UniProtKB/TrEMBL annotation:
<feature type="region of interest" description="Disordered">
    <location>
        <begin position="1"/>
        <end position="24"/>
    </location>
</feature>
<dbReference type="GO" id="GO:0008270">
    <property type="term" value="F:zinc ion binding"/>
</dbReference>
<feature type="domain" description="C2H2-type">
    <location>
        <begin position="27"/>
        <end position="55"/>
    </location>
</feature>
<protein>
    <submittedName>
        <fullName>Zinc finger and SCAN domain-containing protein 21</fullName>
    </submittedName>
</protein>
<comment type="similarity">
    <text>Belongs to the snail C2H2-type zinc-finger protein family.</text>
</comment>
<dbReference type="Pfam" id="PF00096">
    <property type="entry name" value="zf-C2H2"/>
</dbReference>
<keyword id="KW-0539">Nucleus</keyword>
<dbReference type="InterPro" id="IPR050527">
    <property type="entry name" value="Snail/Krueppel_Znf"/>
</dbReference>
<keyword id="KW-0677">Repeat</keyword>
<dbReference type="InterPro" id="IPR036236">
    <property type="entry name" value="Znf_C2H2_sf"/>
</dbReference>
<dbReference type="GO" id="GO:0000978">
    <property type="term" value="F:RNA polymerase II cis-regulatory region sequence-specific DNA binding"/>
</dbReference>
<keyword id="KW-0479">Metal-binding</keyword>
<dbReference type="InterPro" id="IPR013087">
    <property type="entry name" value="Znf_C2H2_type"/>
</dbReference>
<keyword id="KW-0863">Zinc-finger</keyword>
<keyword id="KW-0862">Zinc</keyword>
<dbReference type="GO" id="GO:0000981">
    <property type="term" value="F:DNA-binding transcription factor activity, RNA polymerase II-specific"/>
</dbReference>
<feature type="domain" description="C2H2-type">
    <location>
        <begin position="56"/>
        <end position="83"/>
    </location>
</feature>
Length: 83
């Protein structure tokens, strides 16, 4: 069985998932070396950690964030009472 057609990233050390040990059946980031179990997870990592994609924005002020949890923490600051 060969790698999925059109995939941008190959598992480390092999072109077939069936012929490699489980620890080598991972997708590795060429920028930092972190490994992932799927090419989708690797692509999301690269976009958010190494590129400037900021898909989450504050609905109050429009500030953009790379991660949803950061946006959520920021959004709570708009609910602070001045009393």
């Amino acid at each position: 069985m060969s790698q999925e057609k059109g995939t941008k990233f190959q598992p480390l050390g092999a072109s077939s998932k069936n012929n490699v040990p489980p620890e080598e059946n991972e997708f590795s980031c060429v920028m930092c070396g972190r490994t992932f179990n799927s090419s989708d997870a690797l692509e999301a990592h690269i976009r958010r950690r190494h590129l400037t994609e900021r898909p989450f924005f504050c609905p109050v002020c429009g500030h953009e964030f790379r991660f949803q949890q950061n946006r959520d923490a920021h959004a709570r600051t708009h609910n602070v009472s001045n009393e």
